[in-house]
Amino acid sequence: MIKFFKQPHIIKITTIIITIVLCFNFLPSKVYAYPEKHNIENSRSKKENAKNNILKSSSRYVKFYVQDGYYYNPYIFEIGWNINKRAQKTYTDKVNITLKDNSVINVYFDNNTKEYSKEKKVTNAVKGLFNSLEDTYPLMKNVLITRITHVKKNDIPVYAKKYYKNNDNIAFSALFPYLNKNIQKKYLDKIYKSENIELFAKTIKYAGKDLILMYTDKALKDDKPDFISIMLNCSKEKD
After folding, report:
1. DSSP conformation class of 100
2. What angle separates helix 181-194 from helix 156-165, to the nearest 10 degrees?
3. Longest Cα pair distance anywhere in the chain, in angstroms?
4. Which of 1, 73, 107, 230 lies 20 to 30 Å from 129, alpha-carbon distance?
C-alpha cells in the first residue's frame, strides 16, 4: 500500500481503470452466465410442454361434439357424435352397434327419432353407415341421431333440390355425394357465387380432384382466402 501511494499519479489511475474493467468482465462471465443457461433450459422446457400439449390436443383421447348429415340407402341421418356424459344420461333410447372391426359404438336416439331405435332396418342402415365411415371418422363415439328421413335412391335429385331451396345444409350435403358430376358442378357454382362458405365446405370435399383444382384456381383469381383455405384442406384429405 505504501509503495502504491508512492507511485506516479498516471500509474495509479491506469491501475484503477484496469481493475474496474477486469471486475466488469468477471461479473457477467460468472454471475450472469448461470441465469442465461437457466433461461435457455426453461425456454426449452416451455417449448417441450407446448409441443406435448399440442400432441395431446390432437390425440385420439380428445373428444369434441360434431354434427353432420349422411345418406345410407334409403335414409338420411342427421347425427352428432362424442356427446358428453350428461347427454348420454338424458337419452334413454340406445342401441349398441358392433362394427366389422369388432369395435362398438353407442348410438342414442333423441325424442324425434326414438321410434326408430327398435326398427331393424334402421339399425342395420346405421351399422352400414358407420362401417363405411370408419376410415374417415374413426373417433365417432357416443352417437346421437337427431333426424331420420326416408329417401329412395331414385328420388335423391328431387330431394336435393328441395333441401337446397330450403337452405337445409345438413340434408343437402348428405345427398350431394350421390348426385352425378354435372349436377354437382351446377350446385357448386351456385354455392360459390352465393358465398355460402359453410355449405361449400360441406360439399366440395365430395367432389373429384378436378373440381377441387378448378375452384382453387377460381378462388385464387377472385382473391377469396376463405374458399382457398377450404380447398387446401380438401386437397390434404384427398391425399
Report:
1. T
2. 0
3. 114
4. 230
